[in-house]
Amino acid sequence: MNSHESIEQFFERRGNRNDHPGDFYVYLVDDTHPPHPAPLTRRNYYKISLLLEGEAIIHYAHRSIPVKGNTIIFSNPMIPYTWQRISARQRYYFCLFSASFVNNRLKHESPAEASIFKIQGDHVLFPDMAAAGRITGLFEMMMQETKGHYTHKDDVLRNYVQLLIHEGLKIAPPVASYIPITSADRLTELFLELLVRQFPITSVHDRINIKTAAAFATQLSVHVNYLNKSVKAVTGKTTTELISEHLANEAGYLLRHTHWDVAQIGYCLGFEHASNFNTFFRKMTGETPQQFRRKLQ
After folding, report:
1. Which CATH architecture does the domain made up of 4-178 adopt?
2. Of 242, 268, 236, nearest to 255 (Cα)?
3. Does the reported pTM lie above 0.85?
4. What are the pLDDT digits (tens) for 119-159?
5. What is the DSSP letter of 181?
6. How far is Cα 207 from Cα 119, in angstroms, rounded to an integer?
7. Whole-Å CA distances, 232 to 24, 121, 211
8. Could you tell me which residues come within 8 angstroms of residue 45 by beta carbon, excluding any fewer than 6 positions away?
9. Has domain 183-295 been given CATH number 1.10.530.10?
10. Quick one: which H or E segment has residue 193?
11. Domain ranges of the chain
């Protein structure tokens, strides 16, 4: 399944011509458009946005976050999301960059591996006025830099990205930037990446292929008992609980936002029979898929 939006598709969706293809872009947007949602999908690029004015709702697979002015959002290829414009007028900066722009130095010598880019991290942050001013200044300097012809321009832009990440970490709760990464941490992160990579479901032809702890352990080349122990130690939840939560969240989204019948949704989520999907969904939510959908009508 190919549910990743490319940089080129991003520009096409916005109705912009991309006359200068590259690995890094930065813009100030100040416009008025009717409220509408972007598609819920993963992108194959990184994006950092600073909302200065306007209202929106950022939808992830498992939660929705209302935002209104002075909000910085960190997005990466592993986390599907959609941006729903609420107010007609919005003013915001954003930069987006490809995986090739994120070279080894930016990966390993900056805190890019910290919580703001982690699957379970804080991706939507609310700076105070002073921090918003500093972040605005960084975006302005990036915009000026992209207009120049300095030979090492990309290195300068990477430094600005590092500074944006640092500003985000100053705002984020003081979590585990300073906690040593253990083998259990790393294995859990790999498990979560493999899990969310299967979402979102965008077509009745898409199907979840890995949905048991044993199947994930096989993919990660570890014993299932070690995987279960590691995930439980890091997250406080079992591997099966996390898999079930993601399946239930995706099922709820599909029931809300598609007209697919229940059997189709169940099949996409790896259930061979609609009755098995009904039993699973009722166990997770307390109601059948049909009851859940009827409430929305």
Report:
1. Sandwich (2.60)
2. 268
3. no
4. 556 789 999 999 999 999 999 999 999 999 999 999 999 99
5. P
6. 21
7. 38, 17, 17
8. 6, 7, 10, 77, 96, 97, 98, 99
9. no
10. helix 183-196
11. 4-178, 183-295
